[in-house]
Amino acid sequence: MGSKRTSRRELLKGGSALAGGVTLGAVAPALGQTPASGEASAHDHPMVTGSKVDHPMIPGSKQLIAYGERSRFVTSVRIAHPVGGRPSPDAFGKVFHVASPLQDSVGVITPSSLHYVATTRGSFMPDIDPKEHTLMIHGLVDQPLTFTMEDLKRLPSVTRLHFIECAGNRHNARQKTVQETHGMTSCAEWTGVLLSTLLKECGLKSSATWFVAEGAEEVKGASSMPIAKAMDDCIIAYGMNGEALRPQQGFPVRLMAPGFEGIFHTKYLRRIKIVDRYYMNYNDFGHLDQEAKDAALGFQIGPKSVITHPSGGQQLPGRGFYEIRGLAWSGGGAIRTVEVSTDGGRKWNRAEIKGTAQRMAHTRFGYEWNWDGNETEILSRCTDEIGQVQPTREQIAEYWNVPLERNYRVPGLDNSVMPWRIAKDGSVTNGLA
Amino acid sequence: MGSLRLVTILLLLGGPAFAQSSPTYGVGRPPTAEEIRALDISIGPTGEELPPGRGTAKQGAEVFEQQGCVGCHGEAGVGGPAPALKSKKGQDVPIWERERILPLRAPFATTVWDFIRRGMPLGREGTLSADEVYALTAYLLFLNQVIPEDEVLDKQSLPKVKMPIGDDYARLPEWKPRTPRLQGYPY
């Protein structure tokens, strides 16, 4: 193949989306551009004149120009969580728990369309006009203040990567895929004002020890959190992955409480009350425990990782090279190291962290592996910047001195190591099953 | 922080003309006392935010019928598709071995009042009157043998209700950034 021809083909490939979208879609819809064969549109654009097109074209449309869509060949979607549990939407149109397709994820950002969703008890997505929405801060402050969305956007902003994880993200032997075992976590780039900025503006009274964050959805979900968290790193977020929050993620504004269980990341945030005690409202009642260890472990999320490829339900085509990939995160800070075992946990190998690990953010890791075609089990474990290590179920049971039964429920949000079993035929299944 | 607080104090001393917006950035506006009262539905353990009103279990039983609570929670709080509201286990069973029922296990009666007002009835949240919420709270506490049938609940008496859990629940440890979630726990 001559170099001249190659370069023209490359030009054609590189420019085809542009050509199909802008020129044909926006300018000449009357031509009825639904090219059935590769040559159908060739005469409409100088770039493709006299050439043969490799692929059919995506017909341009005003909608696609205005707001893009993924390829029709990419079909990854969210599913109800748990499998077979309460559907979303339910019979009333309410949304409950929806898990993200981690098995297809690349990098560390979950697309907003695929971000996991959870609601307190099943909620409608409130359709909030941001011009009408306000955030009021009151209680033990020198000056209560009400902020419009415009006010919030005028203030100094931060942009940070943070994961959110639902307390119900708990893997067990019955689940098949990583979406079922770990899909109730996602990571996005969030933009907003630090809550500390707003609280300094209001002026905290010395008796302020807790704050209650409340949403505007119909149940008005409210959670109590320590004021130390508010002053450390909470974000009043209006931006997500380069655009406004999605309604499912709390449009027009939500609280980010990095590293805390998902329920604390109050959506549709309308009010923050500064108080001098734990307020024990309904969401707080959900965290009520008898034992201090359970209470402590049900707040900040521990170090956790999972291999997303190869993972349950996937199929290795044969022996040979694979990059094992996965995600690691911790409520304690940034991920420092990730290790991968390809022999059922006997030997642990240092995995490569892709890019820079961010605090309380999904961190992508990879490990180069040559599969010899024998049955084995692959696992990952991580250590965070404050030295917390992701445990196996065996280690947790041993620490608490309880028998490790098949249905043993580890205390707090389940951060135990997830094993994937690889059979001789290359099929991948849940190692706990 | 110290200087910010000083600025705030100076602004407050300067009178309302200077207290119109935030001290450093000059955005936001002070809500009126009425706006705060209307939005503030957080009822803490002291009950200081409770509105005037009153109700008894007998009145609550009627509200439970009228408002359609029966449809989801069942007759007398059992047997419906929504969570049961009445314990089936006796008072001799330790509280942590009894069911996880809000008007039984909550450490404060204010928690029950707060949730009924903010979260019920499904689809008509926030529409109950203060009297109805006092009455429903009294009814659910009576169903679980927490208070007698004739006890009147109001702003004064509700926070004083002795819940069966007493002091038998864990307090959260002090949270500090960059610190393990549980002291001494390596995982």
- What is the rounded Rg of chain B? 21 Å
- Number of domains in the coordinates of chain A? 3
Can you say what the CATH homologous superfamily of the largest domain in chain B is?
A: Cytochrome c-like domain
In the CATH hierarchy, the architecture of the largest domain in chain A is Alpha-Beta Complex
- Give, in spatial order, the strands making up the sheet with the most strands of chain A: 5-4-13-8-9
Shape of chain A: globular
Shape of chain B: globular
Largest sheet of chain A: 5 strands, mixed
Number of helical segments with 4 or more residues of chain A: 9
Uncertain regions spanning at least 5 consecutive residues of chain A = 1-46
CATH superfamily of the largest domain in chain A: Oxidoreductase, molybdopterin-binding domain
Given as residue ranges, the uncertain stretches of chain B (5+ residues, pLDDT < 50) are 7-18
Please, how many domains of chain B? 2
Mean pLDDT of chain B: 90
